[in-house]
Automatic annotation (TrEMBL):
GO cellular component terms given for this protein: plasma membrane
Residue spans crossing the bilayer: 46-68
Domain of life the protein comes from: Bacteria
Name this protein carries in UniProt: Lipopolysaccharide assembly protein A domain-containing protein
Keywords: Cell membrane, Coiled coil, Membrane, Transmembrane, Transmembrane helix
All residue ranges annotated as the Lipopolysaccharide assembly protein A domain in the record: 40-94
Regions annotated as coiled coil: 73-107
Amino acid sequence: MRYIRYACIALFAIALISVALANRAIVTLQVLPQEISNWFAVNPSVQLPLFIVILGSIIVGLLVGFVWEWIREHGHRAELARQARERRRLEREVIRLKEEKHEGKDEVLALLDEAG
């Protein structure tokens, strides 16, 4: 199974390297559209190789997706935490009730009571 994972990682790396080599041309990346940048008298632009723009877009998309999913699952995590707290409270209560039941009894009889 480990070798299959390594093979998939190697294929993915080869694909990324081939995309990077095929898209080495320099492109101008403008932060704002021309019409809006004229309003503010700024024209922020950067010249980058195309593969950096492509891979950067993929990374930003993944990060946005991870954050979106983390926010979406907040309700599930909160419910699981609430259930875990309730379970711990009930376990403590069961232990307390068992101790009250066997209070004043001989230890051996209490152990036999619990087992049977």
